[in-house]
Amino acid sequence: MNSIISIQNLSKVYDNGYKALNQVSLQIREAEILALLGPNGAGKTTLISTICGIVNPTSGSVLVAGYDIIRDYRKTRSLIGLVPQELHTEAFETVWATVSFSRGLFGLPPNAAYIERVLRDLSLWDKRDTKIMQLSGGMKRRLLIAKALSHEPRVLFLDEPTAGVDVELRKDMWQVVERLRQSGVTIILTTHYIEEAEEIADRIAIINGGEIKLVENKDELMRKLGKKQMTLDLKQPMAKLPEWLSEFSLSLQNDGTQLVYQYDATHSHTGIASLMQLLSDHGVQFKDLATHQSSLEDIFVDLIKEAS
């Protein structure tokens, strides 16, 4: 698959010596949804701002559809839509006027049919004549997306787009994002709702300390790093693990009342059948059994701990 954004050895060092980005290299594919995850201060917003031409890099290069973000600034900016974290809008303008004005800023002719489609997709059509100051926080967030889409970009950056938005609006937004991806738009999003990244992203990039720590297809990442565990609630607690269980990856928890088995669910032989037979042979009984698979959030936290 072709890359629409090519980042090579990108660094950003501020005047006070703070290194926000350190030799970042990343290829972003056409029509994919890439989730950029990292703790606060990891460099997510700096990276997005640099690609969008808001922050000047110290070194390295970024190409958008083959155009350099410095040399071909106007061209690359026209290819990108940005939904920032902050809600900056003209309070006394109407929804229709502000989205139409945003389109005009990029030198595009009026296109009422396109603006209508964007507003309908974002459930803003009924609010088209409403002043922005009268919108709820969730509707203002939708308006930012509409403004970012006004000039028909090929790349859309969503920087914490659902912060402060209720669950129903979040689901609606992600349906819009999926439709955009299907139409060929590349989506790069940052989010603190890791379950959203797990649900909609094609690939995950993890950034920490201004460096890309990992880039992986979501499903492959889950396969490689996702762990599964089985928890047995014992009828009688164990003081310690007996020697005859030493071949299994087991631990005792909750004062010996729980036996926890870690295993790789992708292997054809998980060892569960052998473990259960062995427990039965030795008269170990349990009251309940539960399984749990690592979420993307579990993986993310583990990776950040390793990198710190």
What does this entry look like structurally?
The protein is an alpha/beta fold. The protein has 2 domains: 3-223, P-loop containing nucleotide triphosphate hydrolases (Rossmann fold), CATH 3.40.50; 227-297, Alpha-Beta Plaits (2-Layer Sandwich). The protein has helices at 44-51, 73-79, 95-105, 112-121, 137-149, 167-182, 194-200, 218-225, 272-281, 296-307, and strands at 3-13, 19-29, 33-37, 59-64, 67-68, 80-83, 155-159, 186-190, 203-208, 211-217, 228-234, 250-253, 258-263, 286-293. The strands form 3 sheets. Strands 6-7-8-3-9-10 form a 6-stranded mixed beta sheet, sandwiched between helices. Strand 7, helix 6 and strand 8 (186-190) form a beta-alpha-beta unit. Helix 3 packs parallel to helix 5. The protein starts with a strand and ends with a helix.
